[in-house]
Design brief:
The protein is an alpha+beta fold. It contains 6 helices and 10 strands, in the order H-E-E-H-E-E-H-E-E-H-E-H-E-E-H-E. The strands form 3 sheets. Strands 6-5-4-1-7-10 form a 6-stranded antiparallel β-sheet. A two-stranded antiparallel sheet has the order 2-3. A two-stranded parallel sheet has the order 8-9. The protein starts with 9 loop residues before the first helix and ends in a 7-residue tail after the last strand.
Amino acid sequence: MTEHYQAYFCEENIWHLARRISGVVLFISNSQNQFAIWKQKLAEQEKQESFGRDMAYIMWDYHVVLAHGPQETSRFENLSQYITQQDCLIYDFDSILRSPCPAKHYFSESFPVEKYSTSTDFRPLFRIIEGKEYVERFWSDRSHMKNERQEWSASPPSWPCIMSKENAPLRLSELLNFQEQQNTRLFRLEDFLFS
């Protein structure tokens, strides 16, 4: 595990990891803010059933993981190629797969393409951010985890909120906007071509 882990705060868990390990940060969601992901600890605990099979999955509004590859990000035309390089590893502290996990294995187990054929509404999209930029610019006041009465929906981390002092912070609310008109490119599963 990691010394900075709090369930339901993956964006902060990964922020702390990205301070120590180089790579890229993947925000996973879609325009409906509801996507299916397999091999998550919570799904295994709740014993949910998948789309017609006994393989556990869970519906997340978003999820955040880190990809660490042996080569620098600057060597790649786009960041999806960074993730598909040989020996790239994915860190997902909420997965039942080992962490770190080889990226090719992580993608095939966590996002089995054939499972989405019955409902494309639950297919994930990916926003990729350089880890260094994420560490420098991330900002969240954790308000997304409070209800209308300002009660926590899950216990917050013991560490202070991560609130970048940058002039143009990467606000969590903006990172979770997965509408296509956003300035940043969104990647589909098909964009990750593993050899």
